[in-house]
Amino acid sequence: MNASRLSLHSGQPSGQHPGRRLCRVSDVPDGGARVVDEGPAGKPVIVVRRGERVWAYANRCPHFSVPLDFEPGLISCYRSQVLMCAHHSALFRFEDGHCIEGPCAGAALDGFTVEIDAAGWVLA
Ligand code: FES
């Protein structure tokens, strides 16, 4: 279980990517997640990481449209495969945000396209 909270880094990233900086990939625990307060839509996002791969999702559970973290910034992840909503334990796959178990099984988190630039920033 790994999670923490991070504020948005402002400014344009170096290089040719126009994306918005969310955090550094090294800020996200391998096999875990980090909440970034301001994502692409100005709302909190969850950045999930497995090794050098990252994904980002709106911090909003499709079950009751509430943040997945009951305690701010604390997102539970298991076996580098799924993250869990703190409210009713829905499990979402890292790769696509699809809910594989729980009260909203079959639904999915809203995802954002992200990439990692040469300096190690996660860009949305
Ligand atoms: S609010 Fe997330 S599982 Fe119910």
UniProtKB/TrEMBL annotation:
InterPro entries xref list: Rieske_2Fe-2S (IPR017941), Rieske_2Fe-2S_sf (IPR036922)
CDD domains per UniProt: Rieske (cd03467)
Sorted UniProt keywords: 2Fe-2S, Iron, Iron-sulfur, Metal-binding
Compositional bias segments (type: Polar residues): 1-15
Superkingdom assignment: Bacteria
GO molecular function term, any single one: 2 iron, 2 sulfur cluster binding
SUPFAM superfamilies: ISP domain
Annotated segments matching region Disordered: 1-21
Residue intervals of the Rieske domain: 20-122
Coiled coil: none
Record-given protein name: Rieske (2Fe-2S) protein
Organism: Paraburkholderia silviterrae
